[in-house]
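Trying the structure run again after the queue cleared.
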Amino acid sequence: MLWKTIEKELAEQDKTLYWLAKETKKEKSFYYRLKNGVVKTINLDTAIKIADALDISLDKFR
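Done. Tokens:
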């Protein structure tokens, strides 16, 4: 669900995964692991960075 929200927001905002990785200072491989289900949860700090970069509320990740 988390990945689906991120993917949807990136598409709606016409932004790339590379852009998100750069904005959040996380490696692209982190997002690929999230997409593929290797990473199942993220910490609050990472969630805040993603939400801030995408300019969305943390509630969208619920």
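The radius of gyration is 10 Å. Worth checking whether this holds up in the mutant runs.
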